[in-house]
Target: Urease accessory protein UreD
Amino acid sequence: MTGRDDRAWCTPIALPREVLAFGAEVRDALGVGAAGKLGVLDLALAPRAGSTRIIRQYQKSPLYVYRPIYLDPGRPDMAFVFLQQQGDGFVQGDRYRVDVDCAPGSAVHLTTQAATKVFKARDDFATQLVNLRAGHNAILEYLPDPVIPFRGSRLYQRTSVTVAEDATVILGEVLLPGRMARDEAHVYDLFWAETEVRDPDGTLLFTDTLRLRPGEVDDPRSPGVLGGYDILASLYVICSEMPAAELVTVLREALAGVPEVLSGVTQLPASRGAAVRILGHTSKHVQAAMHVAWDRARTRLLGSPAPDLRKG
Model:
């Protein structure tokens, strides 16, 4: 058994005690149709003959990708990679790990095929570990579809990014409150998302943690968290070619005209870019605002507007 097939390889280290409190006895991955899957995706991409290609690929079901497609006429070199998952979503005991290494000069857009569902857990929790690396002069966009935590679900995810000083990285995430049609507005047990970004030498540039535990412990709708809103989105634009203050101004101007959302933009530490927060009542309005911010940042930094991702 290789390291990549081991449960410890797929599980984030130093899990918070609040997460471990939900844990049951550690067990091996179970059979088809059962919980407790180990999902592994390990990709390396590099420029080849004028476009970015996958040069290394290891995947272990339920995670997999097909061949990259090229959707952006303004950046024909950019590989669009759709991360796919067999089954409907996370269940208790699932441990997923995604590693994506973007070589110097590469251009990669990584997204998911559909929203990520997180199902009810009784004895354990689910985790997802995403490790991204953007080399010298690389471009990396990681914009997965929204996460939908169902009633009683428990998810811990950690996104760790290593970015070269002259690379450009755009990260985004959207959290929905649950299945609103079933009155599941923030009735999950735990949603914990950590984002950390480092220089290649390991120096921490910034970290951002979202911890929501509804019920007796916390109320996500409290004034200090989401207030009267249900949907939260975050966008991080990490770059050095545009002054951070100018990027903040660009994004604020872009979001000023977006209706039905509350948004804020601030500089990232060390002036390495900008961070955006968006709150809203509907997925439609929040995702429209995210698209506006992504499109404006992309146009200014990459010289190409946001393309149609053909997700129907």
The chain has one domain: 3-302. Residues 3-302 form one domain. The radius of gyration is 19 Å.
